[in-house]
Write a structure and sequence with these properties.
Structural class: little secondary structure
Distance between the termini: 53 Å
Shape: elongated
Strand order of the largest sheet: 1-2
Largest sheet: 2 strands, antiparallel
Order of helices and strands: EE
């Protein structure tokens, strides 16, 4: 569903209590009060072996594919 004011996509869910398609505003259906089920997301295995840590000795960030730290924004400089 598209928002009439901002034109962004709005998440909708099907309520199993009343059968209505509603905008997801919380954990309960605003039409009938039924508790909405949370979708079960399958988590991917995280591979930590390929990550590059920030070259700044005081930062705990990880370098992205562009070579910039995701936390401090510094450019990665490999150790000599």
């Amino acid at each position: 569903m598209i928002c009439e004011k901002c034109a962004k996509d709005i998440e909708t869910v099907l309520c199993k209590g009343c059968g209505g398609t509603i905008i997801k505003l919380g954990h309960y259906c605003y039409a009938c009060g039924n508790e909405l089920e949370e979708p079960v997301e399958e988590k991917e295995e995280t591979d930590f072996s390929n990550r590059i840590l920030c070259s700044d000795g005081t930062c705990i960030g990880i370098v992205d594919e562009k070579g910039i730290c995701k936390v401090c924004g510094k450019l990665y400089t490999p150790e000599s």
